Structures are given as C-alpha cells and as structure tokens.
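Repro:
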Amino acid sequence: MEYKDYYAALGVKRGAAQDEIKRAYRKLARKYHPDVSKEADAEARFKDVAEAYAALGDPEKRAAYDAIGTRQAAGAEFRPPPGWNSGFEFSGRDAGEGGIGGGDFDASEFFEALFGRQAAGARGPRSHGQAAGGDHHARVQIDLKDAYQGARRTITLRMPEVDGQGQVALRERALEVNIPRGIRDGQHLRLAGQGGAGHGGGPAGDLYLEIEIVPPANFRVDGRDVFVDLPLAPWEAALGATVTMPTPDASVQLAVPAGSTAGRKLRLKGKGIPGAAPGDLYAVLQIALPPADGDAARQAYRSFAASFGGFDPRREREG
C-alpha cells in the first residue's frame, strides 16, 4: 500500500491549525481545478489535494491519521502495524467546501484503509431543526472463526471529539455486537440508534461497522473462499497420504493424491465461509524438507540423491 503524506500534499506542517489547512486547501484547489488550470497534471494534483483535505480538514479524521505515528515519504511502501486502522469511529460529517474536500471523490486505497469505504462520500446532517442524528461508521476486526460460526463480541471504539477550544481527544466506548454466521470481509453491520445524537428531539443515527476478517497464520480469505497452506513431507506428496488439516471449524482428514506437487490446490467444496452459496476451502500444498542436521540425516540425503541421480529440477522446470 502506498503511504499518503497529506500534510505534504497541502504544503503545511503537521502542527498546522485547522484554519491554515483550510486556507492551503482553497489556494491549491483553485490552482489545480481541472476547469481552469493549465498544469499538465492538474487533475491528479486536484484529486490529491481533495483527498488530503478530506483527511485533515475534519478534526476527527485528522486525529486518526496522526495516530498512525509515521512520517514516511509520500509514495513510499507503507507496512501498517496490526490493527492500525481498526476501532476508529467517525461521525461521517464532511470538511465543507461544497463537497470537494469531504464529499464524493475517488479515494485511494490508503484513505479507504484508514477511514473505511464509506468515508469518502459520508456526510452528516445539516438541519438545525428537528433532525435525526448523523450515521457513524467504524472498521472492526474479527477472527475467521467468528465468520464461520458467528459470535457475540465486545468491541471498543475510539471516537475523536473536538472540544470548545478546537482540540481533539479520543473517547472510548464499548459495545456488545452480534457477529452473524457467514459474514464476509468488507460487509457492513448496522447498529440502529448507535450513531450521532438527534437534533431537536430527533432520533439518533445508526452506526455502521465495516468488517475486516483477520485470518490466522497460513490462512487467506478471498470473498467466501478460504485458502490454507498445508505442509507435506516429500514422501507424503510423492506416495500419497491421509493427513490432518486445520480448518476454522475443526481439523479434517484430507487425502493427498500420490504425485502431488508444491502449489497444487485441493478443494473442499462448501467448506469455506458459510452462506446461501458457501465458499470453498482450498488446501495449498507446500513441500517441507527435513533438516540435514546430523550424520544419519545427511547420509539419508546422499542415498536419496544416488537413487535419483538423473533428476535435475532445473531441467525439469525448463522442460
């Protein structure tokens, strides 16, 4: 994922006041607006400026962005720590400016990863009379096992709040959430009445939780399909074997055909994430070599090499 330095995009320092950020945005938006700019890269620069202001013009999003705690160069490969983007709750209000900075725009992967897929176009209520509260959104992580079986979990959300002096602080709240069986990565859960407070006696808004499935080591998720790396001894792959394979539900006995090679996928139909059309579970075969860590082991490898003296794996690959 490419890191976005939003402060650099607006040409301001990290400690800049909100008014300074707004002025920088207005200046650059006028400079690079595609309808008036003569710059060759005006459209791309305008999108970068709009995204930067969507992140920094809203104190809530700015607090989440600053919490990353990194100062990498823009465009550098970003390797986020586990859970870096989980648990931030946003009110969904925009940064103003006629929808350019906080309204709908073509958000980058980095922006969506931090703020969620709904954030680019989210807007809060504008009425000053009786009105429903704004919807909130947050991204939360669940285990792959919870997607298979369903669960009831306590989640903690961090909500950036702006005080009377314009300072941002993070307030935490805990919620009991029912994770339905068969939920997919990227799906949203709606918690009615858990969003922003209503205005003038209006009802509260809703909270939308964007689900991120965190699989265990050696597991991968693609839609409802699940892939697991399955190590085999060389003789199990060559001669065939029945081995124990872990799954998110329970271990199963898997028949490995003789002559299997590394990278082969063995499909267990319908054993992926449950649903009206359940996914499949794929065992991706990996060949694990015993260590040559003693005289007997080294002699065994010499005997093995002598038995297959004509085998050249590089020539076999070329063939």
